[in-house]
Every structure is written in C-alpha cells, then in structure tokens.
Amino acid sequence: MPDLITTVVQIIGVTLFWAILGELFRRGLIALAKRAGASSGLVKSIRDGVRIAWVVVAVAAVLIVTGIASEFQALTVTGLAGLTISLALQTTLSNIIAGVLLFSDKTLRLHDVIQYSGIKGTVVRVGLRSTLIRTEEGNIAIIGNSTLLSGPFVNFSAVERLVGKN
C-alpha cells in the first residue's frame, strides 16, 4: 500500500510541476505575442500548441515516474511530438521571425512606399505573419513576411533612414 500512495503522490507532484511550468510558459508567450500585435487567432494557436506540448511532456514525466516507460521511450515520444508540432507551425514561425526581423532591421515601417514583385503601394500594416500594402489602385495586397524578407523589395521612403544623409 505505501508504494501505491508514493506513486500517486509522485504522479500528482509531477503533474502539478509541469502544469505550473506550462502555464507560466504559455502566459509569457501570449504576452509576447500580444505585445507584438498578434491576431487573436494566432494567440489561440499559441495557447493550444503550448497546451498540447504540456500534456505530452506531463504524460511522459508520469510514465517515467511510474516506471511504465524508460527515459529513452519518453524522450522519443516527446521528441516526435515536438518535431510534429514544429513541422506543423513551420510556415507560421518563419513568418513571425521574418516580421520581427523586418521591425528590428527598420527596413519597413508604416506608410513606407515599397515595390515588391510588381506590386507598388503604401504599407498600411505590418503584422507578425503578413504585411498589408495599399496599391496605387486602392487594393490591398497581403504578402507573407518571410516572402517579403526574402525579397528583393524596393523601399522608396526609407533612403535617409536606412542609409543616412550623405
């Protein structure tokens, strides 16, 4: 009987530990995404992804603690789950990283006049995943940030900001 009680306490302890850690990580990621201007859909995707990752890690930890699975088996399961999640989010993550780079490099700002792949217009929004450009005809072109960053694009408004006054 003491072994059963010890095992139950260990399972509860491991589950609580990973629940708290997962919740802190989820809140941190969501706060960063909101600060960067992420849409509510992206925030929901982040929340769901972290929840799935937390469940996988917690199950693996419980399997290790109870002795049902070896550390190698649990590591394999969590590794495969991580690989699956990262492959599913590859395009989204690429666009987010490109959006951050566009902001940090200061190559693109609101109201800049740019031309990309035959589309010329004014930047009306730079989001985490895409950039919206109002064309000269008044239409809105939506270009993924990773596509835009891979360029080349011409920024007609940023000569002084990017190169400096000569």
Question: Which segments are poorly predicted (pLDDT under 50) over 5 or more consecutive residues?
Answer: none
Strand content: 15-25%
Helix-strand category: alpha+beta
Number of helices: 6
Mean pLDDT: 78
Instruction: Please state how the strands of the largest beta sheet are arranged side by side.
Output: 4-3-2-1-5
Q: Could you describe the 3D structure shown?
A:
By secondary structure, the protein is α+β, with helices and mostly antiparallel strands. The protein folds into two domains: 2-88, no CATH class; 107-163, SH3 type barrels (Roll). Helix content is 64%, strand content 16%. The chain is built from six helices and five strands, in the order ααααββββαβα. Strand 2 (119-126) and strand 3 form a beta hairpin. Helix 1 runs antiparallel to helix 2 and helix 2 packs antiparallel against helix 3 (71-88). The termini are far apart. The model has no long low-confidence stretch (mean pLDDT 78).
Describe the structure in brief:
This protein is an alpha+beta fold.
Element layout with pairings:
Blueprint: H1 2-35, H2 40-66, H3 71-88, H4 90-105, E1 113-116, E2 119-126, E3 130-135, E4 140-144, H5 145-150, E5 153-155, H6 159-163
Antiparallel strand pairs: 1-2, 1-5, 2-3, 3-4
Features:
2 domains; SH3 type barrels; single chain; 166 residues; 5-stranded antiparallel β-sheet; alpha+beta
